[in-house]
Design goal:
Structural class: mainly beta
Number of strands: 11
CATH superfamily: P-loop containing nucleotide triphosphate hydrolases
Helix content: 10-25%
Largest sheet: 9 strands, mixed
């Protein structure tokens, strides 16, 4: 990671590069984080198969701009996504997009209806979801980007 700590208090640098994947849908992006081999690119490919667009795979540039966290791709890997066991595939690059959701694949969700969690990245507070062992996970992420999540009553 370049720049200051991505979990900073708003005093971090304006831009960092992190090891992650990022997919856009409905003019909002999901940032997918996790250790090497955790399935970031696989989840990205599932989201793309359901209509999401590739912002970046493997490295994501995050920039704090006007109160929003914007994800973009380093030029050297734009339009490329790794498919483990197949190779590097071409995809139409989406371009910069505001991040609306963070997925942490290193944490497994155990609650049927989890509590609201958030993550502070470059001074932007974003909703955080953990990895869900469900065939509907990718579809649920896209629906989240489209319409959001119901608040608990």
């Amino acid at each position: 990671m370049r720049g200051s700590d991505a979990r900073g208090d708003g005093n971090a640098s304006n831009s960092i590069i992190i090891h992650a994947s990022c997919i856009a849908a409905h003019d909002r992006a999901v940032l997918i984080r996790g250790a090497a081999g955790s399935g970031k690119s696989s989840l990205a490919l599932q989201l793309m198969a359901y209509g999401g667009a590739l912002v970046a795979d493997d490295q994501v540039i995050l920039t704090h701009s006007d109160g929003a966290l914007i994800a973009s791709c380093p030029a050297t890997i734009a339009g490329l996504v790794e498919a483990r066991g197949i190779g590097i595939l071409h995809a139409t690059p989406h371009g910069p997009c505001p991040v609306a959701l963070v997925i942490d694949l290193d944490q497994t969700e155990t609650d049927r209806i989890p509590p609201r969690r958030s993550e502070n990245l470059l001074g932007c507070r974003l909703p955080l979801l953990h990895n869900v062992d469900s065939r509907a996970f990718a579809a649920a992420i896209l629906q989240y980007l489209k319409t959001g999540r119901q608040d608990a009553k």
